[in-house]
Amino acid sequence: MQDKMQKIISLCKRRGFIFPSSEIYGGFAAIYDYGPYGVELANAIKSAWWKAMVQERADIVGLDSAIFMHPKIWEASGHVAGFADPLVECKDCHTRSRVDHLLEDIGVQSDEKMSQKQINQIFIENKKKIKCPACGQQNFSIVKKFNLLVKANLGNFTDDWIQDPVYLRGETCQGIYVNYRNVLQTARIKIPFGIAQTGKAFRNEITARQFIFRTREFEQMEMQYFTHPKEELKEYEKLRQARWQYYLDLGIKEKNLKWHKHENLVFYAKEAYDIEYNFPFGFKELEGIHARGDYDLKQHSKFSGQDLSYQDQKTQEKYIPHIIESSVGVGRIFLAVLCDAYQEEDLAEGLPADKQSSRVVLKLPKNLAPIKVAVFPLLRNKPKLVKKAQEIYDNLKSQYMCELDDNGNIGKRYRRQDEIGTPYCVTVDFNTFDDQTVTIRDRDTMKQERIKIKSIEEYLEKKLN
Ligand code: ATP
Fold it and tell me: N or C: which end of the chain has fewer CB within 10 A?
């Protein structure tokens, strides 16, 4: 299965979905850039999320808070003191690994609440079974905890508070908590309600493997839902169901999803589940759905000195809202979508249209496909065909992301579009000039139909929307 991962990584590079960051300088560990098709797919994932979370929900509003925030926020949130992963270093090859991951690989569960001493003890007990994932040796340093917040040197001028380091945000939800009161006072909402936001987050991740699954700069999509304390768990169940349904609506195969219940909850949490996806390297966390109690608003109340309680207009009851959250990385959905869509098909049995013996195809849900329609002239050196293809492309481009391609032979062009998941290819040939028709090829069946040029838009409208 790791083989599938390598194939997906290579397709991402070859076709312009994902590039390693700063590649001409030798790369930059655990950071990736999204290429021309990658940015389209990532944007489609984000808009599907925004539609489900904000557009279709009268009780949820959007927000875009800044990446830089007051340093006290990260103290209040507990990140300065506790946002740390235990790690060991291999003394032979100097690769650093997360201890919880090494233990998980040999089937031993650790717990995020454990002290450095406790986790070191478990590591020592199991040391004989653990090998360095990079070089296979068993020569490890002692366990150290490593803070994941990324420090910045913003505005080191004269302000007192700047004594504390400024951080790049480690998660987007803190921006939601500190704007809760602003939103409440300005939007026409009352409890229960949610605030959704997408944006960059930064973490000094120790283990930088598994492609875009775990990166040091990544984009999160988070929704924090503010509830009455007594309604928290009821709303939590509703959110869990909605988030599961979201992945099904996105086109992810249900057999590749599963729930993981957290057995050891942090002290303030009421309940915590992850939705896991069956990546080529196993079932791993895609999204976290947590019932967080009143911890977040209480902490910010305490550290800011502001009253963040809510008063019910009808009953006059005053309380600190309890929060349930949904939190997911765009990159993790991106990878899950690619893994779900990637297929290799044997075409040995008569498929003359493409004359290929096998193909790689991304069977992406149509709403996520980076390019919806590709338009080709059958032959590239016939100006008449090229001109007509250009006309058709110009007609469609305001409605759909389209591509006009007259490079190489037609079989190669189809192959390229299959690999980037384009649902439809329109080809102009010599018959076009006799009867004003083109062929339109379906990515999944590879069947071609002849349709009138004037009905292309109607055809696509029916198939794509
Ligand atoms: P993990 O256990 O995998 O480190 P986490 O439990 O620390 O993840 P959260 O802090 O709950 O993750 O973050 C919420 C979501 O943000 C995760 O479910 C994941 O989708 C995404 N995410 C977290 N860290 C990263 C990362 N380094 N790269 C990409 N996505 C991430």
Answer: C
Rounded distance between C-alpha atoms, residue 142 and residue 88, angstroms:
6
User: In testing the pocket of ligand 1, which one of 168, 209, 214, 276 has its CB within 8 Å of the most ligand atoms?
Assistant: 214
Is 454 in contact with 438 (CB distance < 8 Å)?
A: no
pLDDT tens for the chain, 465 residues long, are 569 999 999 999 999 999 999 999 999 989 999 999 999 999 999 999 999 999 999 999 999 999 999 999 999 998 988 777 788 888 887 777 888 888 888 888 777 667 777 888 888 888 889 998 888 889 888 888 778 899 998 875 555 555 678 999 999 999 999 999 999 999 989 999 999 999 999 999 876 678 999 999 999 999 999 999 999 999 999 999 999 999 999 999 999 999 999 988 888 999 999 999 999 999 999 999 999 999 999 999 999 999 999 999 999 999 999 999 999 999 999 999 999 999 999 886 555 555 567 899 999 999 999 999 999 999 988 999 999 999 999 999 999 999 999 998 999 999 999 999 999 999 999 999 999 999 999 999 999 999 999 999 999 999 998
Bridge partners of residue 345, in order along the sequence? 359
Residue having the nearest C-alpha atom to atom 18 of ligand 1: 287
Q: Measured in angstroms, how far is the CA atom of residue 317 from the centroid of ligand 1?
A: 36
Separation between Cα atoms, residue 167 and residue 170, nearest integer Å:
8
Sequence-separated (6 or more) residues with CB below 8 Å from residue 293: 232, 268, 269, 270, 322, 323
285 lines ligand 1 (CB under 6 A): yes
Q: Which residues pair with 402 in a beta bridge?
A: 373
Q: How far is the CA of 172 from the centre of ligand 1 (A)?
A: 11
User: Which atom of ligand 1 is least distant from the CA of 290?
Assistant: 11
> Which ligand 1 atom is at minimum distance from the Cα of 203?
27
Residue 355 vs residues 74, 178, 350, 352, 358: alpha-carbon distances, Å: 59, 59, 8, 5, 9
- Which of 112, 285, 287 gets mutated to test ligand 1 (max ligand atoms within 8 A of its CB)? 285
Atom of ligand 1 nearest to the CA of 205: 27
Distance (angstroms) between ligand 1 centre and the Cα of 328 equals: 7
Give yes or no for residue 203 CB within 6 A of ligand 1. Answer: yes
- Closest residue CA from atom 15 of ligand 1: 328
- Give pTM, 2 decimals: 0.89
* String of DSSP letters for 420-451: HT-SEEEEE-TTHHHHSEEEEEETTT--EEEE
- Integer Rg of the chain from CA: 26
